[in-house]
Amino acid sequence: MAAPSLCLAPCPSHAPCLNKKTGACTAKMMLANYEPQYAQTDYSQGGYAQQGGYAQQGGYAQGGAQDGGADTGYGRHLSSSGGCPRGTEDSNDLHVTHRWPLWTGFALLLIPSLVFLWNASDELQKAVADKDKPRGLKLTIAGFICMVASLAYLTMATGNGFITRCCDGRSFYYARYIDWTITTPLMLWELSRLAQDFNVTVNDDTEFYYLVFLDILMVISGLIGGLMCNSDKWALFGFSMLCFIPIMKQLCDWDTDNVGNDADIQKKYRSARNITIGAWSVYPLIWILSEGTGVLSANGEAIAYTVLDVIAKSFFGWIVVSKIA
């Protein structure tokens, strides 16, 4: 008979050490920090310690410290401030215990969104046209991008928008994927409009719809793969990368040196494109280290994704809507 499957969850704060085989939670072990007195006695000038004794050769006490543990060899897998017993894992690494990165991301996305939308209302009222494409529309889209992202971060910062994966007890924030499904097509729209403004060969929306289709498939496949713990998730990750590469190629193809009829707009497009390609290229690496392998803790994952989202959305928006001198 097959062994019953366990649905793992993070342990309580007083017993954070999780045994993934049994699902049991235990407290951290605290060890006393003391110096072995027998290594400092009067006979050390030629006695037990100096002549290659147990203490000097990395014995019971020093061996533990050299191995990265406490000052006693028995507990060298622990630290003097406490640690989880062998065979267990600190479940604090499996969920976000510090929410300040999420609140920071919320603030750094909400403030630009309010600025963009405030300026957009003025621009739309003035009906200032930029090749029949009002700047107010670009400001509005930039504001929506940051506003949707700030909503996702507000959801996560208040302790919502995630599930706990039964297979390993790690928190999986699906709110990010809802955010990306909405905002990344809008970012591609901003880039396509900039490309149309300077590139005479980009004269319809066919390529834009092509990119949006690939983009949504990319995000959804990453979402499905992130919910898995077995090796099948790497097939979903590979599928996501197959969608990702053509998007990056198309963004580069829109920027050619011979078809530009407005050097200033072309320069702005290149800046926005470089931020997009640079930031989007790091997202898969964070996915591998967090949702994929679990090397990166949930707190580290929150910090990494927050930095990327602020760069990819707030900084991106400032470049797109900046006025050309």
What does this protein look like?
The chain is mostly helical and 325 residues long. It has a single domain (94-321), classed as Rhodopsin 7-helix transmembrane proteins (Rhopdopsin 7-helix transmembrane proteins, Up-down Bundle), CATH 1.20.1070.10. 55% of the residues lie in helices and 3% in strands. The chain is built from 8 helices and 5 strands; from the N terminus they run E-E-H-E-H-H-E-E-H-H-H-H-H. The chain has helices at 60-66, 100-126, 135-157, 174-198, 206-226, 232-253, 263-292, 298-321; strands spanning 17-18, 25-26, 89-90, 163-164, 171-172. It has a 3-stranded antiparallel beta sheet with strand order 2-1-3, with no helix packed on it. A two-stranded antiparallel sheet has the order 4-5. Helix 2 runs antiparallel to helix 3 (135-157), helix 6 packs antiparallel against helix 7 and helix 7 (263-292) packs antiparallel against helix 8 (298-321). The longest helix is centred in the C-terminal third of the chain and has 30 residues, at 263-292. The N and C termini lie far apart (74 Å). Mean pLDDT is 82; it is low at 47-80.
Global geometry: elongated
Helix content: 55-70%
The total domain count is 1
The main sheet orders its strands as 2-1-3
Average of per-residue pLDDT values = 82
Query: Would you give the CATH topology?
Result: Rhopdopsin 7-helix transmembrane proteins
CATH architecture name:
Up-down Bundle
The secondary-structure element order is: EEHEHHEEHHHHH
User: What's the CATH superfamily, by name?
Assistant: Rhodopsin 7-helix transmembrane proteins
User: Number of helical runs?
Assistant: 8
Q: Which regions contain 5 or more consecutive residues with pLDDT less than 50?
A: 47-80
